[in-house]
Amino acid sequence: MKILIIEDDPTVTETISIVIEMRWPEAKIISTGLGDTGVELVEKEEPDIVILDLGLPDISGFEVLKNIRLFSNVPVIILTVRGDEADVVKGLEQGADDYMVKPFRQLELSSRIQTLLRRAGGLGEQKPIVYGKMSYDPESNQLLYDGKEIALTKSEGHIFHSLINKAGRVVTQTELVESLYGTTYPEATDSIKVYIQRLRKKIERNPSKPSVILTKAGIGYLLTQES
Q: Could you tell me which of 6, 59, 53, 54 has the C-alpha nearest to residue 33?
């Protein structure tokens, strides 16, 4: 296993490294304090997971994330002091798989890394799922919809996998949270909303008036065939 840490504070990098080494002694840890170098390392080293700070000295962590998503769907955890809702939403909308605010709890970080690693490898060796004009391949995270190929991130694919598995039926917010994270935490429901928005932008003809992924207020979401 290979984990890339993009963080300019050596103390934080050391703390994260200790958390990883205690849980996964065999893991290879790569680190850099520069965003541009981090993007290069993602392409060169092909890590299994990236832990990304937003406050980097050369370029914004958001820019790093944007550049990574141009060529890689590697799971990314944003780990930052910036806890404003706008920053959380922006990070998730730009393709982060999780968002944690410093100071962080070490066991929680370890758990979230484990969840992302399990998710990244847990959908393989499954046949494509067909529903109406949709064909979703869990192994590649590729969605074919009405003849159009749509690439999904790991988290988007996990959410969509849950929806298409119960196509035509409501998937509760609790089910989506537990499926995605393995547990619940205060920001989880808001994260699900962001992922649903991202899926709608990729799938819906008019994301502001969805006809494929419907919201059941106070309950969850429903995948249906477009009317």
A: 6
